[in-house]
Amino acid sequence: MPTRKRIVTMAIAIWIFHLLALRVSAESSDHIRWMEFDVPVAVMSQAMDYDVKYYGTDTSIYWVDLIAYGAARHWGKFPRDRRCAHIDSAVEKITEGQNFEDLTEGLKLFPFYREAYGAVLSGMVGEYEQKISSADDSGGEVWERRYGLRAFFPLARGYNYSHFDDFGARRSYGYSRPHLGHDFMSNVGTPIIAVEDGYVEALGWNRYGGWRVGVRSVDRQRYYYYAHLRRDHPFHKTVSEGGFVRAGDVLGYVGMTGYSRKENVNNISVPHLHFGLQIIFDESQKDGNNQIWVDVYDLVRFLSKNKMPVRRNEQTRDFERTFETNSIAND
What contacts 220, CB < 8 A, 6 or more positions away? Predict the structure, then answer.
């Protein structure tokens, strides 16, 4: 059994390797080849609250900038389950008139974290329109412009689920490999929700994921993978390969398909949604050897602030979103 001293030495060595890898990526003129996403939900909430509070004022503060600043000050290791004091301090200085650029001067890892965390979070907070009513006095639709969290939790509101941080756990079907996603244990038929706007890049059967759908974000940096969908009726009737989906749309339904070369087979023992997020800085990373899949445990806990309620359409047997939203492109 390793001694305490050896364990500490190994931990320090891993930490140094982590920092060196980040420095190489930060200083390279090439795309980022490796990253982790370990921002606690408390820090994401803290940064978003500041962003929303000061949006439209002379002290506009973008939440990803704040998170990247905190990461650079913490050398990539945030305190768990509490606010980041460096972010609070930065906001205080900015509201007193200091430029954000001056705060980041000399923080060599800030550009790396800004690009890396921006690839994960960009577009999740911003302007959007929500339909208030189908018609006003003149017969037109009424939309209200808002600002805040516009990305959605991957499961519909009101449905039971359980989950834990299972990223990296071993899987053995086909070959031994790490689990590059996050599992939501839920009931068969639970509606699955599109996290953000995007295009359907993959739709159909995969021997590992069963019935699955893959959605690429509009900026092409995020690929959302939803797997093990329901047998016989896995997808919403409006979802098609190459088609566009909006944040909050119903994509399909939780099931237990997969682990079979034969289509439409339930070989998964427990019904659940496998939800994965791949980050793409260069197109060669999409299906190549340098794929980047991130641990989304804290991210989905953050997204649980925004769940889409649904209702059943008895004619189509599909569930539909209960209100309409449209994202507005960030400047």
Answer: 280
